[in-house]
Amino acid sequence: MTVAATVSPANGYDPFDLSAPHATWAKMRENKPVFQHKDTGYFIVTRHADIKAVFDDWQTFSSENAQAPMRPMCAEGRRIMTEGGFTAYSGLSARVPPDHTRIRKIVQGAFGPRRFKAIEPKIAQIVADALDRIAPLGRADFFRDVAYDVPAFVLFALVGIPDSDVQKVKAWSVSRAVLTWGELSDAEQLPHAHNMVAYWDYCRALVAAKRAIPGDDLPSDLLKLQAEGAEITDDEIAGVMYSVLFAGHETTTTLMANGVHTLLTHRDAWDAICADPALIPQATEEILRHAPSIVAWRRRAKADAQIGGVAVPEGSDILLLMGSGNRDETVFPHGEDFDIGRANARNHLSFGYGIHFCLGFQLAKLEFGIMLRQLTARFPDLRLTGDGKIDYLANVSFRIPSKVEITWGDAT
User: Residue 390: which domain range?
Assistant: First the structure.
């Protein structure tokens, strides 16, 4: 057993900077696969096997801090949220058994293949409408003009809320992301605290509205199960909505944007998919491995433990770099290379592992597959434009691009 070394941003690693972290991650996997980060105090875990082992041992490594702000909320922010009645708790990702087991089993019965299959034509139409809007333009920002809205419209159809609320929920989602996983000053936290109060009020009101007038949607399904005896409260259903309305579209938006950027950067892969759409499922797994939406997640040690032979004391916070583990050469030969023919790409950790494996993984892959099929069929000559520089939102978990500028046809 060894004691972890400490590393500060000055020595080459800033966990909030996701602009181009892969070379740094590779060095860490080689030289310091588990270490304590000086500025945040987090133990950083970089190798596939160690990340998988932590995810799998939920008794020792709790998910209780998965939704906690990286930087604690300031006193005024706490006052705003407390007085505003904010009592939201993670739908599933920060819960532990037995509550996690109980709620996940109920939600899984309503949020699964049957409902996804029923909504597949709607997804195809939402994608077609988005591509129809950009087709006459000859150029677009794929992130803002297509990927930003499509998953939200899909999710809203599943959850049963009007399309007119897309921009509002998107704004709340940005607030949740930067407040939870970013590094904001006290003053910067305050408007986001107000947004979180509004977001939680919306989720609770949604449950009340579906109780009054049920629909063919997820919250109505959960309320029906509750009426039939399922052990889930209204606030727990609201908590599921609080999570789904964020995770159910933000990560898919980013998957679409990062995926298209990656394919257009590797032209041979794009051309291969255009020629043979049957390659899309395998390409999707490689995109999830190579350019995932979520590159890191958190855990907390509930007892003195070891990770990769390094001592991790009870109470320690842990940052699992799935984006690094996904390129671990011991699991993925030539892991830095993008290869849509990679046989074991699906062994990536982008949906997590163990009891908290992402509940919406099937929906994300379904949406992305439909998008790629239509995009490659309609715009086979699609290409990147602009200066090629992409900024990414400063946070520890979500690799969200600022733009993905594209052009097609004769546009210049």
Answer: 3-7+14-407
Q: Is residue 265 part of a domain?
A: yes
Tell me if 412 is assigned to some domain: no
Provide Rg for the chain, Cα atoms: 21
pLDDT tens digit sequence for 284-326: 999 999 999 999 999 999 999 999 999 999 999 999 999 999 9
Question: Measured between alpha carbons, how far is 269 from 104 in angstroms, rounded to an integer?
Answer: 37
Residue 80 lies in a domain: yes
The structural domain count of the chain equals: 1
Give CA separation, 391 vs 220, 295, 303, 383, 403, in Å: 39, 16, 38, 19, 8
- Residue at 215: amino acid letter: G
Tokens encoding 100: 């996690």
CB neighbours (10 Å) of residue 353?
21
CATH of the domain at 271: 1.10.630.10
d(CA 377, CA 360): 26
CA 273 to the chain's CA centroid: 25
Determine the pLDDT at residue 10: 43
Average pLDDT over the chain, rounded to whole? 92
Task: Check residues 64 and 145 and name the one with the higher pLDDT.
Answer: 145
Tokens of 373: 């099929």
